[in-house]
Design a protein that fits this description.
Oligomer: single chain
Shape: globular
Strand content: 15-25%
Number of helices: 13
Radius of gyration: 20 Å
Strand order of the largest sheet: 4-3-2-5-6
Largest sheet: 5 strands, parallel
Structural class: alpha/beta
Helix content: 25-40%
Number of strands: 18
Length: 418
């Protein structure tokens, strides 16, 4: 029986010739990730089993991004805990204010994860790195603690769903529309979502990061793309690490197969209170908004900033709408400055934040009151996700978010004549 991409990576890291769906394995880890919310818990778990040292100071990444710059005393104490732990263990990849970015935008940019590697992170959107052809998945802080100490994690090998991508995107269609469309189709509980097909060449790396990032919203264990020329160019630009390309066997077994024609997709919006509650832009109707968030580990990359700026340029934010732009990393922030994107946002009436998860989890920098609505390029819209339980979050692409900022209601760029 053949293996999928994910199964081949797991087999190699478990030291086995092959694995099959449902098999329990212990695999070596190439990277263990934590943030300012989840790492303190992992540190305390390490203390419980009398372990203070990590297995490899080069293979742990700790990113202070959720409540930073610190919003209150508690968040400051959390960061202090991680800061001291990192210093004591000489963690090479510790990122604090001034150096940090939103973790899943930052790690690929820093070249810390490449194709063929395994990564666990105490953050559910760790699945982002599947865009590079790696196996990456979110875990709890206890598993993170064990991973930091042993360099290993146990997994139940997932079965897979194949998504055959064909066609070319229309002008305002992005990876966000692709993944929202897929999530709205069906779930993928504890499965590997494997994206293949000739249409992948029409997806940018930023598109792929967005798609892999939201695999968890379909319930998937991970999302993964095959390595092509574009992937290799990205890795060579950002990393000095060697990488391994894995392709699924021709006789690999899939639980289901779907074809996604990019040319048929429309701008897609996820209504409250689930990412799967999707509607195409022509089905949305007249929904007025109070806030727009453009950023996050899903859509805080430079292409997202450029798309938003192209739409907002020369226009003004609608009266009564707050617009918050959050570049994903310090490098992206600087690039926005150098390209004049910050000027466009500020002149339009938006505010620009330092890189932070901030409003995505209702932490800070955009918490909503009862009855308020936001269009957001983030990844989740559960009840109370961005503030009060009676607020609402509508998930959309940077193009739809930017257009909505100008009109004051959920809108497509087409409504602005673009």
């Amino acid at each position: 029986m053949g293996m999928t991409m994910t199964q081949k990576i797991l087999a190699a890291h478990a030291g086995l010739p092959s694995v099959e769906a449902g098999q329990l394995i212990e695999a070596d880890l190439d990277l263990v990730l934590g943030n300012d919310v989840t790492t303190p818990v992992a540190i305390h778990e390490m203390e419980k089993f009398n372990k203070k040292e990590v297995f490899d100071k080069k293979k742990i990444a700790l990113v202070m991004d959720h409540f930073t710059p610190n919003k209150d005393i508690k968040s400051a104490e959390h960061c202090k805990c991680v800061r001291q732990f990192s210093a004591a263990n000489e963690i090479e990849n510790y990122f604090d204010v001034g150096a940090m970015g939103i973790e899943h935008a930052l790690l690929p940019e820093k070249g810390l994860i490449v194709a063929g590697e395994t990564c666990i992170g105490a953050d559910s959107h760790t699945c982002t790195y599947g865009a590079l052809g790696a196996f990456s998945t979110g875990v709890g802080s206890t598993d993170m603690a064990a991973g930091m100490v042993t360099g290993k994690a146990w997994f139940k090998v997932p079965s897979a769903i194949k998504f055959n991508i064909v066609g070319e995107k229309a002008k305002w269609i992005s990876g966000k529309d692709v993944i929202l469309h897929i999530i709205g189709m069906n779930g993928a509980l504890y499965k590997s979502m494997e994206f293949v097909g000739e249409g992948i060449k029409n997806l940018t790396m930023d598109d792929r990061f967005t798609i892999a990032n939201m695999a968890i919203e379909a319930g998937a264990k991970n999302g993964i793309f095959p390595v092509d020329e574009l992937t290799e160019e990205y890795m060579k630009e950002h990393s000095t690490k060697s990488y391994t390309k894995y392709e699924a066997d021709e006789d690999a077994v899939y639980d289901a197969e779907y074809t996604i024609d990019l040319s048929q997709l429309k701008p897609t919006v996820a209504f409250p209170h689930l990412p799967e509650n999707t509607k195409t832009i022509d089905e949305v109707g007249d929904i007025k908004i109070d806030q727009v968030v453009i950023g996050s580990c899903t859509n805080g990359r430079i292409s997202d900033m450029r798309i938003a700026a192209d739409i907002i340029k020369g226009r003004k934010v609608a009266d009564g709408v707050r617009v918050i732009v959050i570049p994903g990393t310090q490098d992206i922030y600087l690039q926005c400055i150098e390209e004049g994107l910050m000027t466009i946002f500020v002149k339009a009436g938006a505010v620009v934040s330092t890189p932070t998860c901030g409003p995505c989890l209702g932490g800070h920098m955009g918490v909503m009151a009862a009855g308020e609505r936001a269009v957001s390029t983030t990844n989740r819209n559960f009840v109370g996700r961005m503030g009060h339980v009676d607020s609402e979050v509508y998930l959309a692409s940077p193009a739809v978010a930017a257009a909505s900022a100008i009109t004051g209601k959920i809108s497509s760029p087409d409504e602005l004549g673009l």
